[in-house]
Amino acid sequence: MKSFTKKLFLFLTILTMAFVLASCGDGKDGNYMVYYIESDYSSIAAESFEVIEETQGAIVDELIECMDDDETEDDLINPLFGDLEIKKYEINDNIISLYFSSEYSELEKNVEVLVRTAVVETLLQVPDVSGVYFYVGDIPLTDSSGNVIGIMTADSFAINPGSQINTLASADITLYFASEDGKGLVKEQQRVNYVSSTSLERLVVERLIEGPSSSQSRSSVPENTNILSVVVNDGICYINFDEGFLVQDYDVTEQVVIYSIVNSVLELGTTSKVQISVNGSSDLVYRDALSLDQMFTKDLSLVVNEDIVSETEVELTEQ
To answer: What is the pLDDT at residue 2?
Structure first.
């Protein structure tokens, strides 16, 4: 009974916070949310900002100036930090085209995705704006495969700002852990109750690090691994670990480690590719055998069980 009361109190608290936050950041009556990068580069966070201007162009000017302001909270980084700047912008057919300085191309990939998310989410609040287009100099921004990213809308991103707590949710997730001999993958299903400010992609990686519920499998990801960020953009899930991910455990093959992550994330159906980095860099070869400088797609050839070995309900996960 005590446990139920505690959960009910938490649920009501979250609902109250969600109601308060929902009233901010819609661009009405000058109320906007400006998005910043958390200092550990794990996510983005929003702060309320009152815009004085009323015309579309003037609002954009004020929001860009705010994103370029170094006077932020100690645990936040403004999206236009250092020498990075927006040299100019154009508004045509409700699309804002932003022209960044050359410093944009020097951003680490995980940082670039966070910068892009923060800028786009901030400017999409401007009245009648339906999309944002990025240029570096006069060249359209491209992804790691050289494809033009194009117009970004509210549907382009799946990242949950740390300051936006929503409500309790539950999900069925399919995870792939290492087999007992470390040479194959064992499929396990978990039903997870969690706070919905945590993205499902991040939740999946967290559960992989926690390890399996079944005795028929073992952890695939080194237990001292910390998640720095999980960001979804343009159908790609970017996962950034700290150096704990590089801890050598040769009882589990490198393919099993990588594809336990890739297959588990892609089972959600929200993305089609995964890129893994360590401290923001993918320019390394994992265990001198598998290059991380690539987009990974699902590969079920390592799966050794046809049926899900167990179905486990996991208690509330708090972020």
So the answer is: 40
